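Request from the bench team (R.T.):
"We need a structural guess for the complex before ordering more flavin-adenine dinucleotide. Sequence and SMILES attached. Just send the tokens back."

Command: build protein-flavin-adenine dinucleotide structure.
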Amino acid sequence: MQTAEVVIIGGGIVGSSIAYHLAAAGCTDILVIERETAQGKGSTCKSMGGVRAQFSTPVNIQMSLYSIPFYADFDERLGHPAGYRPQGYLFCATHEKHLAYLRTNYLKQVAMGLKEVQLITADEIRNRFPQLRAYKEKLYELGATWAAMSGSGSTIVGAFPDVSSRDAARSAFPGVRTETAEVLGGESRDASRSRATRE
Ligand SMILES: Cc1cc2nc3c(=O)[nH]c(=O)nc-3n(C[C@H](O)[C@H](O)[C@H](O)COP(=O)(O)OP(=O)(O)OC[C@H]3O[C@@H](n4cnc5c(N)ncnc54)[C@H](O)[C@@H]3O)c2cc1C
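Reply to R.T.: structure attached below.
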């Protein structure tokens, strides 16, 4: 029977990131159990790779304050391309209610330490983003929030799972092991066998 100090069930971006960060913090006995044939085949591979800090909940804002600078250094730090491009995120209000929602979130984001987010007027949207006219004139009517360091990471979604499985194989992160199995009722079983049993 295999044992480990830390067992992580699921090798998507969250499980892989936890494995990476625990290993980086010195944990030397981590097992990642993934039921698919490779890591990152769940929600992670379906994601568009959008990266932003314009969230409404403190926990999401806080995670972004950590993860966006982390993604900016990802390639150098981990030797794997994350494809992070800070092309910015613009949320345009098309109703007064929506503008009030964006303003409330903006105040929350600033209070939590997000420096780059701005609340911009309808005129500023028009001046900075004239190309939106072709899309919808309505986007210029009220105002928006803009954050230049938000953007996208075309390969971020695969990068962590790749790094953690590759590095586990190479032992560059000593202590991270991966296993293809499914955890059912507290037990780890061969994923292909448990799938066959359920069909
Ligand atoms: C269409 C779409 C677009 C998205 N776009 C964005 C975006 O632009 N920006 C953004 O930030 N987020 C986006 N998301 C959300 C983002 O993809 C998820 O928040 C993120 O991938 C969740 O990661 P996860 O590791 O928690 O889950 P997952 O990637 O689903 O990983 C969970 C893993 O656990 C495994 N697992 C589950 N149960 C067991 C078990 N019993 N035993 C063994 N293994 C198990 C699964 O096989 C899976 O690999 C999008 C999501 C979708 C669907």
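Two things stood out. The chain has a mean pLDDT of 83. Residues 9-15, 33-36, 41-44, 46-50, 182-183 surround flavin-adenine dinucleotide (CB under 6 Å).
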